[in-house]
Design goal:
By secondary structure, the chain is mainly alpha-helical. The chain has one domain. The two termini are 15 Å apart.
C-alpha cells in the first residue's frame, strides 16, 4: 500500500512539473520574440535580488519548520501552532523588508538594475516574491502530509495564472518586461490567498513562542547559509549584470531556465522522497538496515539523471527551433549547466542528513566555501568567456561543493551507497554531455547526430532495465494508478 501511494504521489508531482514545464517552454519563445534580451534581463535581475532579500528575511525558518513538522505531525493542534508560529514570525520580517524597499526603491533600483528599468519593477517583483515565500510554508505542510493532489492543484493553478497573464500582457500591451513582473505578482498573490483561506480553516492561527524558539535554534545558524545559498545560485547572473550587461543576463537565463528543468524535476520528486527519508532517519533505518535508504533513493536518482540526459541531448534543437536569433548563444549554457543541476540530486540528500543531525552550522560553512569558489571562478571566467564562462564556473564550483557536502554529511549520518550503479548512471550522462558539446562546436550530419543521440538514450534505458529501475511491471502499475486517479 505504501509503495502504491509513493508511486501515485510521484506521478502527481511529475504531472505538475510536466504541465509547468510545458507552459514554460511555450512562454520562452514568445518572450524571445517580443522582449529584447536587455529588458528580459532586467526582470531576471529583479527576481534574483528580491529572492536573496526575501530568503535572508526568512532566517532559514522554512527548513527548520519542515524538520520539526515530523515531530508534531500526529497532533493537529500542535501542527497548527508550529506553522502559525513560523508564518507569523516570517510575515513580520517580510513586512519590514517591504517597507524599507518601498522607501528607498529608487536608489536601490538605480544601484542594482539598469537605469532604463521601470521605476516600480523592483517593488512589484518583491511583493510577488514575498507571496511566493509565504506560500511555501503551506505547500510544505501539504507535501509532508502526503496531500499530493492538493499540492499539485495549487501549483498548476499558479503556473496557469502566471502563463496566462504574462502572455496577454506581452502580446497585447506595451508593458515590456513589466508584463512578467505583473504576471509574477498576480499569480503568487492569488496562490497565497487561496492557500491561506483554504488551510486557515484546518490550521487555526495560534502563536507558540516555545515552538518558535526551537525552530530558531535550527534556523538562525542557517541564515548565513540561506544567503550564501542564494548568492551561490544567483551569483552568475549578478556578476554578468555587473561585468557584462542585462542583455547577457537575459540570454544566459534563457539557457539556464531550460537546464533548470532538471532541478525542477528533481524538486518534484523530492516532494515524495524527502519526507520518507526524514522518517527513515528518525526511525534509525540507516542503522538497522544500512541499505534501506539507498534502495529507496536510487530509482529517483536514475529518473532524475534520465531527464538531465534528455535536456542535454536536445538542447540545440530546442534553441534553434523555438528561440529568436538573439538568444541562440544559450545552447552551450544549457549543456554546461546540466552538469551542475545533475549533481544537485546528492545535495538534496546530504542536506537532509545534516539538518537531521542538527549540523546546520556545517551547512553554512560549506555554502560559504562554495560561494568563495564560485566568485573566484566566475569573475575571470566571465571576463574571458562571457556567458559560457559563467556556466562553467557555476558548474565546476557546484560539483566541488556537492562532493564536500557528501563527505561531510557521511561523517555525521552515514548512508551506505551503492556506487557502481551511481557511477554507471552518471557515466552515460557525461558521455551525452561531451557528445553534445562536440556536436555544438563541430556540427555533425543531422542523421548521424540523431542516430548517436538515440543510441545513448537506448543504452541508458537498457541500464535501467539491468538495474531494475525501469521494469515493465512498475510502468504498468504507475499507469494503473494514474488512470485510477
Amino acid at each position: 500500500m505504501l509503495i502504491h501511494k509513493t508511486i501515485k504521489n510521484t506521478s502527481l508531482y511529475l504531472l505538475q512539473i510536466a504541465i509547468s514545464g510545458i507552459l514554460m517552454l511555450i512562454m520562452l519563445p514568445i518572450i524571445s520574440q517580443n522582449l529584447p534580451s536587455s529588458e528580459f534581463g532586467q526582470f531576471i535581475l529583479a527576481q534574483v535580488y528580491t529572492a536573496i532579500a526575501v530568503g535572508v528575511a526568512n532566517f532559514g525558518m522554512l527548513i527548520s519548520y519542515e524538520r520539526n513538522f515530523f515531530i508534531f505531525e500526529k497532533s493537529s493542534k500542535n501542527s497548527a501552532k508550529l506553522i502559525s508560529s513560523a508564518v507569523i514570525f516570517v510575515t513580520f520580517n517580510l513586512t519590514v523588508l517591504l517597507v524599507v524597499v518601498y522607501l528607498f526603491q529608487s536608489d536601490i533600483s538605480d544601484l542594482i538594475l539598469s537605469s532604463s528599468a521601470h521605476n516600480n519593477m523592483l517593488i512589484i517583483v518583491l511583493i510577488g516574491t514575498i507571496a511566493s515565500s509565504l506560500s511555501q510554508y503551506y505547500l510544505t505542510f501539504l507535501k509532508n502530509s502526503g496531500l499530493a493532489k492538493s499540492y499539485v492543484r495549487y501549483m498548476i493553478t499558479n503556473s496557469v495564472i502566471n502563463f496566462t497573464v504574462a502572455i496577454i500582457f506581452i502580446t497585447q500591451s506595451n508593458f515590456g518586461s513589466m508584463s512578467l513582473a505583473y504576471a509574477w505578482v498576480v499569480s503568487n498573490s492569488i496562490l497565497f490567498i487561496l492557500l491561506f483561506l483554504t488551510l486557515g480553516r484546518k490550521l487555526s492561527a495560534s502563536f507558540d513562542s516555545g515552538m518558535l524558539k526551537e525552530m530558531l535554534k535550527i534556523s538562525l545558524p542557517l541564515t548565513p547559509r540561506v544567503f550564501f545559498g542564494f548568492m551561490n545560485t544567483q551569483l552568475d547572473k549578478i556578476l554578468l549584470g555587473f561585468i557584462g550587461s542585462s542583455s547577457l543576463v537575459g540570454i544566459y537565463y534563457m539557457g539556464q531556465n531550460f537546464a533548470m528543468i532538471i532541478f525542477q524535476f528533481m524538486t518534484g520528486l523530492d516532494k515524495v522522497f524527502q519526507p520518507t527519508v526524514y522518517r527513515k532517519l528518525f526511525a534509525n533505518s540507516h542503522i538497522k538496515n544500512p541499505n534501506e535508504i539507498n534502495n529507496f533513493i536510487l530509482p529517483f536518482f536514475y529518473i532524475s539523471i534520465f531527464v538531465a540526459l534528455i535536456v542535454v541531448i536536445f538542447s540545440r534543437e530546442f534553441i534553434s527551433l523555438f528561440l529568436s536569433n538573439e538568444y541562440q548563444e544559450a545552447t552551450p549554457v544549457i549543456i554546461i549547466l546540466s552538469i551542475y543541476y545533475a549533481s544537485l540530486f546528492f545535495q538534496k540528500i546530504t542536506g537532509i542528513q545534516l539538518i537531521y543531525a542538527k549540523k546546520t552550522h556545517v551547512i553554512t560553512l560549506l555554502m560559504f566555501v562554495g560561494i568563495t569558489i564560485n566568485v573566484l571562478l566566475n569573475i575571470p571566467f566571465i571576463m574571458r568567456w562571457g556567458i559560457v564562462g559563467a556556466a562553467w564556473a557555476t558548474s565546476i564550483s557546484g560539483v566541488i561543493v556537492t562532493i564536500a557536502f557528501y563527505l561531510t554529511a557521511q561523517r555525521h549520518v552515514r548512508i551506505l551507497w551503492q556506487w557502481k550503479p551511481v557511477f554507471s548512471i552518471y557515466g552515460i550522462f557525461l558521455v551525452a554531455t561531451i557528445f553534445s558539446i562536440i556536436d555544438y562546436s563541430f556540427p555533425l550530419n543531422l542523421e548521424v547526430s540523431l542516430m548517436i543521440k538515440v543510441l545513448i538514450i537506448l543504452i541508458y534505458i537498457k541500464l535501467g532495465h539491468i538495474l531494475s529501475f525501469f521494469s515493465l511491471s512498475e510502468i504498468k502499475r504507475l499507469i494503473y494508478i494514474k488512470n485510477k486517479f
